[in-house]
Design brief:
This protein is mostly helical and 110 residues long. The protein is elongated. The N and C termini lie far apart (63 Å).
C-alpha cells in the first residue's frame, strides 16, 4: 500500500480531491468559487493528464513535479481572466471587442 497520496490519486480519493480543490479556491471570492470549483472538477474528471505516467516526476532535476503544476496553472489563469481581468476585458472594452469579433465573422449582422 502506498504511504504518499499524489495527483494520480486525485480521481479516486475523494477526500484528497476536496482538500486540493478547497485549498485552491479558499482565496477566490464567493461569487466565483462555484464556477472555479466546477472547472477544476471538470479538468480532473475529463482529462487524461492524471492517468499518464509519463508526466510523473519532473523534466529537470530540482524542479517541481509536473502534475503539481497543472491545477495551480488553471487557478492562475482563472484569476487572471475572471477575478482580475486585464484592462482590455473591462465591461466597456469587452462589448467593443465582442462587436468586433461578431462583425469579423458575421458582417451581415451589424
Amino acid at each position: 500500500m502506498k504511504d504518499k497520496v499524489n495527483f494520480f490519486d486525485i480521481k479516486s480519493n475523494i477526500s484528497y480531491r476536496q482538500y486540493i480543490i478547497s485549498s485552491f479556491s479558499d482565496r477566490i471570492d464567493d461569487k466565483f468559487r462555484i464556477d472555479f470549483n466546477n472547472i477544476l472538477n471538470y479538468v480532473i474528471d475529463n482529462s487524461d493528464v492524471f492517468n499518464r505516467t509519463e508526466l510523473e516526476g519532473n523534466f529537470y532535476d530540482g524542479e517541481d513535479d509536473t502534475l503539481d503544476l497543472i491545477l495551480p496553472s488553471i487557478r492562475r489563469l482563472y484569476g487572471k481572466m475572471f477575478v482580475t481581468p486585464p484592462n482590455i476585458l473591462t465591461e466597456q472594452n469587452l462589448k467593443y471587442f465582442l462587436l468586433f469579433v461578431v462583425h469579423q465573422h458575421h458582417p451581415q449582422v451589424l
